[in-house]
C-alpha cells in the first residue's frame, strides 16, 4: 500500500509541474503582431532536391 501512495504522490507532483510549465510557456510566448497575410510572404525559389 505504501508503494501505491508513493506513486500517486509522484504523479500529483508531475501534474503540478506540468501545469506550471504550461502556464510559463503561455506567458513567455510572444504576442503576434497581427494576422499573417499570404500576400506578404517572400518569394522562395523551388528546391530541386525535393522532387
What does this structure look like?
The chain has 51 residues and is an all-alpha fold. The protein contains one helix and no strands. The chain has one helix spanning 2-28. It is elongated.
Distance between the termini: 60 Å
| Helical percentage | 40-55%
Shape: elongated
Succession of helices and strands: H
Structural class: mainly alpha
Question: How would you classify the quaternary structure?
Answer: single chain
Total strands: 0
Radius of gyration: 23 Å
What's a quick, concise take on this entry?
By secondary structure, the chain is mainly alpha-helical. It has one helix at 2-28.
Provide the fold topology.
Elements: H1 2-28
Spell out the key features of this protein.
mainly alpha; elongated
Amino acid at each position: 500500500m505504501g508503494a501505491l501512495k508513493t506513486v500517486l504522490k509522484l504523479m500529483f507532483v508531475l501534474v503540478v509541474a506540468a501545469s506550471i510549465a504550461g502556464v510559463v510557456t503561455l506567458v513567455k510566448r510572444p504576442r503576434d503582431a497581427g494576422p499573417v497575410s499570404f500576400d506578404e510572404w517572400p518569394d522562395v525559389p523551388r528546391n530541386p532536391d525535393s522532387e
